[in-house]
Design brief:
Elements: E1 9-15, H1 21-32, E2 36-38, H2 39-48, H3 52-62, H4 69-80, E3 88-92, H5 98-110, E4 117-122, H6 125-133, E5 135-138, E6 144-146, E7 166-167, H7 174-197, E8 201-205, H8 210-223
Parallel strand pairs: 1-3, 1-4, 2-3, 4-8
Antiparallel strand pairs: 5-6, 5-7
Helix pairs in contact: 1-8, 2-3, 2-4, 3-4, 4-5, 6-7
Length: 224
């Protein structure tokens, strides 16, 4: 793509927990030099900067409540109104549901920054359960292992301190992981259908080497 021929990349990045979204997000940002807008980060920034929506969000968070869509939408719109998004951006963690997807469509039309691609990193949920529930920790020294990617050199013995007792965090237990993936699948399915109908959805295979996943993403983004 030559000089000014390049289309502004306004992306949404999707994927279930464990699909490798964080790794791919970093690669996209490094190559295409667009701001990575993750809802967690912009919430923290809006609260720290005391923006109108940040103050509103803080009220809910301080009480341990979920931030309503209207406030989340407001914080995203505040962030997308900033000048650094004029040359493109990548949203991560938003939209989370169909109402937010409609709100995003409205605000990006208003700001003249319409989404032109939704990248969905797809990995079979059974593979994700294995990826996410494989982590275990040495009870004695806290060294972290993974049964698939980083097992101890000698089975049942910690490489660091030689102890033999390990445990799993609640978050990493297969049942917890299965539940988390089921909840996220339920949220993501209507979004996938929504963007598919709009011909904005590009699904890439996340169950391959990290660099091969990125090659697939690159192909999509360079074609836009």
């Amino acid at each position: 793509m030559e000089g000014n021929m390049m289309t502004t990349l306004n992306l949404v990045l999707m994927g279930l927990p464990g699909a490798g979204k964080g790794t791919q997000a970093q690669k996209i940002v490094d190559e295409f030099k667009i701001p990575h807008i993750s809802t967690g980060d912009i919430f923290r920034a809006a609260m720290k900067n005391g923006t109108e929506m940040g103050i509103e969000a803080k009220k809910y968070i301080d009480q341990g409540n979920l931030v309503p869509d209207s406030v989340t939408d407001g914080i995203v719109e505040e962030r997308l109104s900033e000048d650094d998004t004029n040359a493109g951006f990548m949203l991560d963690g938003y939209p989370r549901n169909i109402d937010q997807a409609h709100a995003l469509e409205t605000m990006t039309t208003k700001l003249d920054k319409s989404i032109n691609a939704v990248i969905n990193i797809h990995v079979d949920p059974a593979v994700l359960v294995e990826r996410l529930s494989g982590r275990f920790i040495c009870k004695n020294c806290g060294a972290t292992y993974h049964k698939l990617y980083n097992p101890p050199k000698v089975e049942g013995t910690c490489d660091v301190c030689g102890h033999h007792e390990f445990y799993q965090r609640e978050d990493d237990k297969p049942e917890t992981v299965k539940n988390r993936i089921a909840v996220n699948t339920k949220l993501n399915t209507p979004l996938i259908d929504f963007y598919n109908e709009k011909k904005l959805l590009y699904t890439v295979n996340g169950d391959q080497d990290i660099n091969d996943v990125y090659k697939e993403i690159q192909k999509v983004l360079r074609a836009i």
